[in-house]
Design goal:
Porin, eight-stranded antiparallel barrel, 23 strands, about 450 residues, Rossmann fold, 3 domains, Immunoglobulin-like, rod-shaped, alpha+beta, 8 helices
Amino acid sequence: MLGVLLGLLVALPAAAQVDGLLSEGSRTVEGPVVALFPLQVLNQTPADSEDLRLLAEALPDALAARLVQSGQFRPLTGVRLQRHLGAAGIPAADGDATAEGMRAWLQEAAEGLLEQGQVQEAVLGRLMAVQGGLVAVVERYQLSRRPAPTAQLVGSAVAVADKAPAMLEKAADLLRQLYPPETEVVPRAVERLVVLPSALRLPIGQSHKLNVLAFDQDGTLLPNVTLVFQSGDEGRVAVSSDGVVTALAPGEATVQVQALGRPTTAGAASVTVQVLAPTLGFRGGATVAGTAGQAENPLVFGLRLTPSAAFQTTAQRVDLSRGLENPLTFLTGFFSSLLGGGRVTLDLDARPSQDLTVMLEAMQRSSSGYFGTGVGLVAPLRQGIESGLAVRLTLGTQMSWFRGHRFTIPVELNADLIFRRGEEAATEARLALVTGIDLFQ
């Protein structure tokens, strides 16, 4: 038992500092005052009586330290508890009292403090030496005024340890049993994180808030969990500190969530965010500038088609040697990812009684606007106009006044340079300003 005694002597200086910590904390913490009495020692032998006595005094201090850390209680132990007992007129315990007598004194002292309003809660307990270890039984009482004022048992806890120092480490387990889970006297560990929704499809430029639920090992929802959000690709998806996800560019990214501020056994939870480019757009506008001699009708009506299936925008390692061995497969995969990632748009523009333009454009999109360059063909809609090859430069922006809806209002500027065929090969330039609506899948 010498090792046990030395272990307790090491723990006691820290326990002696608890009284000063409690005295300082009690001036700032608002919460119920809790009296923690020394544990009653049972089944002791002359060989281990001193060790058990030290443990019976140290364990309430360990419980008090945990209560102070929670910031919800003002515990009383040691000298401060004796002062309150004296102020309440409760005599000191008889050192020669039997086990039954000591138990009765503890009950009377707890009831006296509760009835006089000195404390709001009282914690009593027993420490027993059994074969192969120690058993601590702790009970929590509150004042009940019905039918008569009396101390009512509102919580109990049991802890088993093989040695005295190990029993001091059971303070957190005892408090978890004494108080209901929602009290959070001892912070519960985060066992699992759930992100809602688990997958997200957002039109470019729009935002959505992620809801994260944290559960303990019993499946109980944990309040006041600090969460940290991180985007795997900040060029495509941005996420704020409170979990608001914003779609920046077409593609796919993963947002990870981690819990901080309490013990956790849960790994990072993740949600896949898919940023959508508009799949179908309608345009209407007019030609605002152009080469002299063009038709008088300036109206322009258009259609925009953007393939968005089979997103393939995550970074991949390209093996050029394998691509050269099978160039057809390599090129097919390259163009399918290009066409399926919202980066290529097919433009169909009609100018009544003049011509029809079919354009294939490569687009760079962001949440604030888009930029594109393309090449296409111009087909005449009346006699006297030759077909030709066209090159286009597009600048545009989109406005979304209705958050959550899958459409935006674009404003687009198209600059075309047209190379006509025929005997009098001519080059034309025209500038069109159009608007309309873009729809997302």
